Amino acid sequence: MTKFNLEDIKKLIFLPLNDLIFMAQNTHKKHFKTNDFQLASLMSIKTGSCPEDCKYCPQSAHFNVDLKKEKLVEVSKVKKAAELAKQNGADRFCMGAAWKKLPEGKDFNKVIEMIRTVKSLELEACVTLGSITEVQAKELKKAGLDAYNHNIDTSPEFYKEIISTRNFEERLDTIKNVRKAGISVCCGGIIGMGETWDDRAKMLEVLANLDPFPESVPINALVPTKGTPLENREPIKPFDMVRMIAVTRIIMPTTRVRLSAGRKELSPETQMLCFLAGANSIFYGDTLLTTANNEMVEDRKLIAEFSG
């Protein structure tokens, strides 16, 4: 696979949009022979009271956000949600917990049981649980975990402007632990937090130069939430998202590029352009952790229109 440096990525970002989409579409066609989409459903299994101070996140305990805080849910609730997701066409079920790091003991054992339950339904299982150790990663793999989500969020330089309770290297350490355990990596970032195009390019450079690069790359648009420090950020420009998707597709040609948070604010036409630019996975369902998402019926219509 070709490795892309920062200058390569910046040149791609600023190509005329029609040339960029054409290049991304050709790359996509070369590596994906069909127009299939991965439909991933996401459930919050432990909501709120997170000790991290990520400025974009309503789950942080540092901010006064109107959010109902919950302890780790029961396995039966996860099973019910996963069954419903499968009935509605999802093939991956993701579980997210608002932790700084995965705790040991009772909660860890319950997460293991959740993974086994999801796998018993013949769904791919993915979790995002904060930082994990190499030993924990091996236990998650043993339980059947397919993928671990751990976003780098933004560039190493801009990271400290958004989060002070952890550093960028900690994110990379967890990704290494996940890799060593043989679990596939789901890792992307967020645009619209006040970062520059240089920051966006640097974020993509880090992702593209992971060895190997992630099997799944979610591109999130900030969803400004009242009570968080970023509540007054302007919505991203639709074509900014299209450009990010296209460049991600070109520099990581075999990854699943996922339209994630913020998709509800994108028009069907913008989403279609993102599909043309190489997005081939979406989070599918009415809620993404704590933010609203497109309705499943709308999503199915949109994908049918695109895929035929």
Model description:
The protein is of the alpha/beta class. The chain has a single domain (6-301), classed as Aldolase class I (TIM Barrel), CATH 3.20.20. 42% of the residues lie in helices and 15% in strands. The chain is globular and about 55 Å long. The two termini are 30 Å apart. Mean pLDDT is 87; it is low at 287-293.
CATH superfamily: Aldolase class I
Give helix and strand order, one letter per element, not per position: HHEHEHEHEHHEEHEHEHEEEH
The main sheet comes to:
9 strands, parallel
Kindly state the number of beta strands: 11
| Poorly predicted segments | 287-293
What does the average pLDDT come to? Answer: 87
Radius of gyration: 18 Å
Q: How many domains make up the 3D coordinates? A: 1
CATH class: Alpha Beta
Looking at the structure, the CATH topology is: TIM Barrel
Proportion of β residues?
5-15%
Which key terms come to mind for this protein?
9-stranded parallel beta sheet; 308 residues; alpha/beta
Outline:
With 308 residues, this protein is α/β, with parallel strands linked by helices. The chain has helices at residues 6-13, 17-31, 75-87, 106-120, 134-143, 156-162, 168-180, 197-208, 238-251, 268-276, 296-307; strands at 38-46, 92-97, 124-128, 147-149, 184-186, 189-191, 216-221, 256-259, 281-283, 287-288, 291-292. It has one domain (6-301): Aldolase class I (TIM Barrel, Alpha-Beta Barrel), CATH 3.20.20.70.
